[in-house]
From TrEMBL:
EGF-like domain mapped to chain residues: 1-33
Record bears the keyword Repeat: no
Region Disordered, residue ranges: 46-90
Biased composition range(s): Basic and acidic residues: 61-72
Top-level division of the source organism's lineage: Eukaryota
Sorted UniProt keywords: Disulfide bond, EGF-like domain
InterPro entries registered for this protein in UniProt: EGF (IPR000742), EGF_extracell (IPR013111)
Protein's recorded name: Latent-transforming growth factor beta-binding protein 2
Gene designation per UniProt: LTBP2
SUPFAM superfamilies attached to this UniProt entry: EGF/Laminin
Length: 90
């Protein structure tokens, strides 16, 4: 008798026994309905170390800024143009 999963497994997961899905790589959850977050590993000495995607593990003590904070800093750097001064005829 074939195992029955109701609701059925998603994302090409397979039903291994009643109500138990085995998910393919990249998916998780009771019905394989969730995409697994990307995981990145680097070799740190003799061990593997997991790092957050989008971060630079080699950059020291640099807090990550949200895009709204970066925009505020960038606009603060813009200098106000000086008013045009009329040129004196020579």
């Amino acid at each position: 008798m074939e195992a029955d999963c109701q609701p059925p497994c998603q994302n090409r997961g397979s039903c291994s026994r009643p109500q138990t899905c085995v998910c393919r790589s990249g998916f998780q959850g009771p019905r394989c309905e969730e995409v697994t977050p990307e995981q990145v590993y680097i070799r740190d000495g003799g061990a593997l170390k997991r790092v957050q995607p989008g971060t630079n593990p080699f950059q020291k003590d640099q807090p990550r800024r949200r895009p709204s904070e970066r925009q505020a800093i960038d606009t603060a750097r813009v200098q106000t143009p000086r008013p045009a001064t009329p040129r004196q005829p020579v």
